[in-house]
Design goal:
Blueprint (H helix, E strand, L loop, with lengths): L2 E4 L29 E9 L31 E5 L4 H12 L3 E2 L2 E3 L8 E4 L2 E6 L4 H11 L4 E4 L10 H15 L3 E4 L5 H9 L4 E5 L4 H16 L8 E8 L8 H12 L10 E3 L2 H8 L9 E9 L6 E9 L2 H21 L4 H19 L5 E8 L16 H4 L24 E5 L14 H8 L17 E6 L5 E4 L6 E5 L15 E6 L11 H5 L3
Parallel strand pairs: 1-10, 3-4, 3-8, 5-7, 8-9, 9-10, 11-12, 16-20
Antiparallel strand pairs: 2-15, 6-7, 11-13, 13-14, 15-17, 17-20, 18-19
Length: 529
């Protein structure tokens, strides 16, 4: 089960989303253009031994203050944007809490290759290029990694919404949990990206826990007492450092609550104070915090001017946000540990593996299973189909092969000898032996012989695919993702070919993550970036 933690609505409570990582594909026929196979391995059946651990979590209800023992977790965290003020403060708070910042961080393109020192730690900065491979290698080195995202827009890509979405999609594709403190982006799309993955995340425009608690209290009041302040007038003043040009996200959230309480107020009525002299003389901001503060005042007055209410919260510096970010990171780590304890889908994945060994113990299968890496060469190679030029498809006169469209059923249940294509992780098997439980991982559970390929087939490039012929299916199942359940024995009655492989061909291709309409751009269709 994946979870995105929204803040501040219903303070730190968890949604229970249904997961569709990659989505269940129900077509039984697919067109695949092969090419020269770089390597082909054929394996006979043999007894194997394996071990899988099972873990899970109950619903998240609230954010507790970390216990003393959690202050020395040695938990690895990657702080992206560590060269910025907020990133530096987070690293300082993380070190004080006993966490372990890894010596790598993503930053802007113009800072790529630089090494910065933060809290006595040298951290190498990487730009946008090659981020997926870099992050995947870091996760391999630090399996319990949690990413903290405070990156700023790249000089080349100033689109804040796109940057936020791209970062979230990257973390979800690699499969690393993350904490993201941001006020920008398409929030619903951002939440959906995380819900549709196998990744846990804390996403909040406000990382100060105490301010979040205040926002939650306002939301509760607005929900339970709508119209309570009808007729009242509202004055809002907010003061931030001069570099902050937009309206505070916190102020917008509070005003939204007042509107639900019956107050008529528009955002352009907010009094924004950015002049340092006014901030000192009128607002009362200490001079040493002119470059980093958040002062908010909300004043309500009754129609006859006889009753007034005032709400105020003033923050000097960034420590409240840095400490809240670290608390959110520890909170997420603790929930992941609980998640890995009693997860029904993990238990049912193990049942599939145990059932496989029970079957081969009672009757050892015969025949072969072959694994083949398919490659479209990037340059012309004699007698090979090469990687297509940009205009290849528009100029092609070759007719498509016959295909059928089935509106129902599952790929693995189709009886015909069409290729079975699943949209895989670039590392074959994805999270099959971890927490993953969507299209690819389920196939590896019901056809456990596929797991052998994870041992010797490295990451797929954009011009590569992996073809497996002959794996036998051993288990039935129901459900998907968190609802996945082992449903007993399955007897695979498919015929075998002349070398003893069952007539079942499975193709794994690396899917692009969360592309939406961008998937139709030429560079993504042909992957020639």
């Amino acid at each position: 089960m994946a979870s995105v933690l929204r803040v501040p609505a219903k303070i730190f409570q968890q949604d229970n989303p249904t997961l569709f990582s990659g989505g269940r594909r129900q077509n039984s026929a697919a067109l695949f253009s092969g090419g020269a196979g770089r390597s082909c391995s054929v394996f006979g059946r043999r007894k194997l031994a394996t071990r899988i651990s099972s873990m899970s979590t109950p619903p998240i209800q609230h954010l507790e203050k970390p216990s003393a023992s959690s202050q020395h977790l040695g938990l690895p965290i990657m702080v992206n944007g560590c060269n910025g003020k907020m990133g530096r403060d987070v690293i300082q708070a993380a070190v004080s809490a006993g966490l372990h910042p890894v010596p790598v961080s993503f930053s802007r393109a113009e800072e790529s290759g630089q090494t910065v020192e933060v809290c006595g730690k040298e951290i190498k900065l990487h730009g946008p290029s090659g981020r997926e491979n870099i992050l995947a290698s870091i996760v391999d080195e630090y399996p319990n990694l949690i990413v903290v995202d405070y990156t700023v827009p790249d000089a080349v890509n100033e689109n804040e919404d796109l940057r936020i979405q791209d970062n979230a999609e990257l973390y979800c594709k690699v499969g690393v949990p993350f904490v993201m403190g941001t006020t920008g982006g398409d929030r619903e799309r951002l939440y959906k990206t995380v819900k549709d993955s196998n990744v846990y995340a804390v996403i909040s425009p406000q990382m100060g826990k105490q301010v979040v608690a205040f926002l939650a209290a306002m939301e509760i009041m607005a929900e339970q007492f709508p119209g309570a302040f009808s007729g009242y007038s509202l004055q809002v003043m907010e003061s931030h450092q001069a570099s902050k040009l937009d309206i505070s996200g916190t102020a917008k959230a509070i005003i939204s609550c007042f509107q639900k309480l019956g107050v008529s107020f528009e955002l352009d009525q907010i009094q924004q104070i950015r002049d340092p002299k006014q901030q000192v003389e009128m607002v009362g901001v200490p001079e040493e915090y002119l470059n980093g503060h958040a002062f908010h005042m909300y004043h309500l007055t009754s129609p006859d001017q006889t009753v007034s209410f005032e709400f105020q919260h003033n923050v000097c510096g960034r420590s409240i946000y840095a400490e809240g970010t670290v608390d959110a990171t520890i909170f997420l780590a603790k929930k992941l540990c609980l998640y890995e304890t009693n997860d029904e889908k993990m238990e049912n994945k193990i049942k599939c593996i145990i059932h496989y060994f029970e079957r081969i113990y009672s009757h050892m299968p015969t025949g072969l299973v072959s694994f083949e890496r398919k490659v479209l060469p990037l340059e012309d190679v004699a007698l090979c189909v090469t990687y297509p030029e940009a205009d290849f498809w528009s100029k092609s006169a070759t007719p498509l092969c016959h295909f059928e469209v089935h509106r129902s059923g599952l790929i693995e249940d189709q009886s015909k000898e069409a290729l079975n294509v699943f949209f895989a992780n670039r590392y074959l098997g994805g999270g099959a032996l971890r927490r993953g439980c969507v299209q690819e991982e389920i196939r590896f559970m019901i056809n456990p012989e596929l797991i052998a390929g994870m041992l010797f087939l490295p990451s797929m490039a954009d011009n590569e695919a992996i073809k497996v012929v002959g794996p036998e299916r051993f288990s039935n199942y129901t459900g998907y993702a968190s609802s996945f359940r082992f449903a007993g024995d399955y007897v695979d009655k498919r015929d075998v070919d002349f070398i003893g492989r069952r007539k079942k061909k499975i193709i794994a291709i690396d899917a692009l993550c969360g592309m939406r309409m961008r998937q139709y751009r030429l560079e993504h269709l042909l992957r020639f970036e």
